[in-house]
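B., you asked whether I could sanity-check this one before it goes into the benchmark set. Here's the sequence:
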Amino acid sequence: MRPLHPVLAEVTARIDERSRGLRGAYLQRVDAMRQRPPASQRLGCANVAHAFAAMPGDERLKVVAERAPNLGVVTAYNDMLSAHRPYEGFPALIRQAAHAAGATVQVAGGVPAMCDGVTQGQPGMELSLFSRDTIAMGTAIALSHDVFDGALLLGICDKIVPGLLIGALHFGHLPCVFVPAGPMSSGLSNEAKAKVREQAAQGLVGRAELLAAEQAAYHGEGTCTFYGTANSNQMLLEAMGLHVPGAAFIHPHAPLREALTREAVDTVLALAARGGCIGHQVDARCIVNAMVALLATGGSTNHLIHWVAVARAAGHLIDWSDFSALSAVVPLLARVYPNGAADVNQFQAAGGPAFVIRELLQAGLMHPDVHTVVGEGLAAYGTVPGLGAQAEVVRAPVAAESGDAQVLRPASEPFSATGGLQLLTGNLGRAVIKVSAVPADRHVIEAPARVFDSQEALQAAFQAGELTGDFVAVVRFQGPQANGMPELHKLTPPLAVLQGRGQRVALVTDGRMSGASGKVSAAIHVWPEALTGGPLAKVQDGDLIRLDAEAGTLQALVPQAVWDARTPARRTHALAEDAAHGWGRELFAGMRQQVLTAEEGACTWVPRSPLG
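And here's what the prediction gave me:
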């Protein structure tokens, strides 16, 4: 195993120094909570009676008299999300496993979980980003009963895992284990699905053909099989040591899945017995390991927002410069759609997270000496779980060689020497671009601007045949304060169609793109956002825009005197009204007013800093 790469050491030290005061205050609060007596002795008699009133008598005796551990379950179960449908039966299984270990379990609460696949391009998507902090608050409410010795967190998809993790870190004195449910089986390939979408955008196939393709791709229980935000979540949790090792990508109905869920119960109990807690576990090294895992696998750009917020919840301050510095030295080891043709089941079969983590550790590109839910060190996450003779979980080292070199490669022979993430700066603000899925000849785009104040306006222009020649689509007023920063994934098919016709096109936006997006160069998360008078509000049709992912710049090539003299455009009254009313958007008005910038994690629960 090589020594730790100096850039990792430098970035980690920089985060530690930057976060010294915030992290110190956080750990003081965590340690003060850890020193208290058990809840059954600490709380008043009426509180205790209420807390355990619904338990059978023998279980109440265990908790109160015998001081048996009591676990809280926070679940994001619903049967709208295919990934979360399997969770319906998990509480009974968890309770059974806990009873066998002499412990008790209570479902502490449920949190909302929306499906971005349903809300893409719909008004509901404007609630999506803020659902993360809503989930964090729901997690806090569930754990606020303060009668738990540990927590099991049931969630997988986009905003759900970051929300659960942010909420749990605000109860950092508790040992916590995440319990995944796994991906659906492979259906229609992601490339074939994308092709049908592009054909539909051109009017070459109708709704019936498009629906058939979509239903062949999304066809059963489990996470969607592309490597978007949901599956990136699972990779990052493995890298942080917050799952039992190898739990991420086992099918919901595989016998091993049940065994891993039972093991999660035993794991959180063992963690509680040795005094472990999530607050101490998620230190700067743990956060850096997650960032490295994201870069090495070409994961979702959404995590350049979410993991900034996760880090902040644990008292760490990270920014896009940290991601960019790591990206320059972390190799790309995986090609999973949209960064390749494979799905997550093929990724798992080729070696999966275990192969990636083993390779990164050996290359000195991960901190090996971190705390995990199974003990000291990350090496255990380079193993693959299986079933033993008694249906117990047994583990073996991951294979030395990749099972498919088109999907997964060793650190010595990566797909790319860098992680494919680039920070962009210039007179249009700060933004990020994920180039791992974009053809190399599209990394630099210089073309006239076509300005749109909504994604619907761009789609209408495409349908009208107005998007001719080379251009950079500037889609503004899509930031957190404007309308909750919706994903603009619906723009991918039309822009991909134009690119396929030979036009040089790119997207620049203060909104987000889906974790499934790729192919077209996109400078996203631009801040300051247009609503606050950011530079995108100065761009006019015809301005020459240069997006240079190689140099890391994003510029409006407008004479300085002309640029300085421009008054930023204002959002129309109609668009402002649309963003403020209907579909429950009124309920999130306070979040839109309070939210921080994208680079600060779009947090709604901390005071706005000078950046905002």
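One thing to flag: The chain has 25 helices and 16 strands. Otherwise nothing jumped out at me.
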